[in-house]
Amino acid sequence: MRTAPARIALWAFSVLVGLWLIAPTLVVIPLSFTDKASLVFPPSGWSTHWYTNFFTDPRWTEALFSSLQVGALVAVVATALGTAAAIALTRSGSRWVKASYGLLLAPMIVPTVVVAIGVYALFLQYNLLGTLLGFVTAHTVLALPFVIIPVTASLRGFDRRLEDAALICGATRWGAIRQVTLPLIAPGVVSGALFAFVTSFDEVVVSLFIQSPYLQTLPVRMFASVTRDTDPTIAAAATLIIVFTTVLVLAATFATARRNRVR
Amino acid sequence: MTALIEIASPATGGRPRKGAGGRWGWLLLPSLVLLAVLFLVPLGLMVWRSVSEPTPGAANYSWFFTSDVALATLVRTLTVGAVVTLVTLVLSYPYAYLMTVVGARARIWLTLLVLLPFWTSLMVRTFAWVVLLQDSGVVNQILGTVGLGPLQLIRTPTGVVIGMSQVLMPFMVLPLYAVMSGIDRRLLDAAQGMGARPAIAFLRVFVPLSLPGVGAGALTVFITSLGFYVTPALLGSPDQALISQQIFTQVNGLLAWGRGGAMGVVLLAVTLVLLGLVGVVLRLTRGRGGAR
Predict the structure, then answer these.
(1) What is the nearest CA distance from A22 to chain B, expressed in angstroms?
(2) Of B50, B159, B194, B260, which cross-links B250 as Cys (Cβ 3.0–4.6 Å)?
(3) Which chain B residues are closer than 8 Å to A156 by Cβ?
(4) Residue B238 buriedness (CB in 10 A; 0-12 / 13-18 / 19+)
(5) What is the mean pLDDT of chain B?
(6) What distance in Å separates the CA atoms of residue A219 and residue A242, rounded to the nearest whole number?
(7) Ramachandran class of B34: left when φ > 0, alpha when ψ lies in -120 to 50, beta otherwise
């Protein structure tokens, strides 16, 4: 076994690494409550001024609203498409269906900047820059893998004999899927929807290309703010995002955990 | 995290039934249509523009491979990726090892510390590093107290490496932990029983068995780092740009679609080659069976 000093060194090293891992969170949250108009850490006095600023400045509130709107629509569209795709992927034995699994996950692997310039070229051509339709469709492509993975996992764990039982009892195929399958894989679907929302809510690179002065998402607004201003409203925005996405991801994680228990 | 590991496993789950081939396939259509229009067509457009603008031919590629600036950018991107991979490996290996030897409660805390940054928005984390690394920032205050003096961190490749390593560390810790927790510790006891000192037993038994995790983690981090835009754009400097920043500038700033497209194709090609390597590593991992 490892000797005691080695173990202490290991712990000390890991504590430092852990500190480094949470350092950004440790900085942003207190900084958002600073009373000074600068990004100096640690703050010397406290105030909630920057939150007031965030919620009264239309540039920030509009960006927040756009992000929420795009995210919600992406969650709906990506979940519907992704769930349908996951059903096909787990049930069809055909070779081309299996081959399309890799294709569906490809947006996760291909560098976003590469996807972004292609989408930018396409949107320029069809006047889709800065449109809701443009944002939702582009984000949906990036979010699809994050729906397909948990839903496929749920479907793999699902006992199809339950569906057969419903069929024997006289249900139609769609009736059986709607009333038996979907409720049982619901936790996977819910976590997929939440991940889709978070993917869209966090996305920066594609959004930077397809934004317009009329439609900017929150991360795009933050990007502009980091490069131009030094006002701590951005720290307030960042803290709101941290709180919001943490809650969502925890919810998704719990949904996934429940799914595993359902098995 | 599991997402990246699952890439290599085909969706053969559930129980596809014989003769049911065509019945479900059409449910894929909406996704595939969307993917074709908003993923394949854009990629195709990028490739097309790289060989057609401003003039048809391979001019953009010959520019790329003869331009000192473009090649330096590619080399810098690969170097930063390699350094980030090394840094995350050095920091993650002991951390993941500790995760395998502590009790359940400590392990939950160590896991949470890794997952917290994983969940936090990339934009938020990058902004936080801008604050931490600025000339009068916390890191420089600490360095000043220790006597290492204020250093120029932001707008340098060092700053980019620090930020990117923190952002990418979960992609290293999680596969390492997955592999390490599957290693049979009795092998270490056996080695020591045969007379090996603990350090030797660790180096000659544990480390080789953990290599599949090192490979999977390192390739994931390296590949992901190549495509990073936000972190290098905000923490780095324009004259030390990485390839994604160059692509952005070429297309969005200079409207040089051909050159930007060619750089995109090169980046994509490098990524795909490396991804093929990941596939090989994962297959080797499975082949060893016990290591998972």
Answers:
(1) 7
(2) B260
(3) 13-14
(4) exposed
(5) 86
(6) 12
(7) alpha
